[in-house]
Amino acid sequence: MPEASRQRIDRWLFFARVVKSRSLAARLVEAGRVRVNGDKIGQASHSVKPGDVLTVSLDRRIGVFRIAAPGERRGPYSEARTLYEDLSPEPAESDAVLPDALPPIRQMPDERPPKRARGRE
Question: What's the whole-model pTM score?
Answer without folding.
Answer: 0.72
